[in-house]
From TrEMBL:
It comes from the Bacteria. SUPFAM superfamilies: Jann2411-like (SSF160904). This is Zinc finger CGNR domain-containing protein. Residues 172-192 are annotated as: Disordered. Residues 135-176 form the Zinc finger CGNR domain. It comes from Planomonospora parontospora subsp. parontospora.
Length: 192
């Protein structure tokens, strides 16, 4: 199982651990071990924290609240009070600790609650700040990932060019190729 961090915000990356929300939902945080691995892959902690089934359920609730809040921001709709309160509660806890080691490297420490507090704070800063208007949803079907469009012209269409963007462009090429194949022969070919 591979995690991707292409949303431009850690809160949106957490929301992105559910793929294909409208068709064939895929949950990348299906087990406590998945969530523990995600905290390290996200760069929140250096070592995997202990995670219980209850922690996983609490994280899933936070993830869904972030998704709904970001979707509301994207649509220009008001935030649901319960989602806002859940996010604020998580953001109000102590974040993951960071420390500069003797060798100049960075050390990230804490438990799952600290990792989630850091993630929730990132979501609060996005949703409550000027970049909230830049939240987009990937245009590639069936992807439903939300991301921050920080492109120069604000014209980014896909969550990730290497994945969804590549697949969308390849599909468009195949569709054009099929259309061209039904009409006139390709240049350099003769019929009959």
């Amino acid at each position: 199982m591979e995690f991707t961090f292409v949303s431009g915000n850690l809160g949106l990356d957490l929301a992105g651990t559910v793929g294909r929300r409208r068709t064939g939902r895929v949950d990348l945080l299906a087990t406590p071990a998945d969530l523990a691995r995600w905290t390290v892959a996200a760069g929140l902690l250096d070592t995997e924290p202990a995670v219980s089934d209850e922690d996983l359920a609490r994280t899933a609730a936070l993830r869904e609240a972030v998704y709904r809040l970001a979707s509301a921001a994207r649509a220009g709709s008001p935030f649901e009070a319960a989602d806002r309160e859940l996010l604020n509660r998580a953001a109000g806890r102590a974040p993951a600790g960071v420390r500069l080691r003797d060798d100049g490297g960075l050390e990230r420490t804490g438990d799952l609650e600290a990792a989630l507090a850091t993630t929730a704070r990132a979501a609060v800063e996005l949703l409550g700040g000027p970049r909230a208007v830049l939240i987009r949803e990937c245009e590639a079907s069936p992807c439903t990932r939300l991301y921050v469009d920080s492109s120069h012209r604000r014209s980014r269409r896909w969550c990730d060019m290497r994945g969804c963007g590549n697949r969308a462009k390849a599909a468009a090429f195949r569709a054009r190729d099929r259309r061209d194949g039904q009409g006139a022969p390709a240049p350099g070919r003769t019929t009959g």
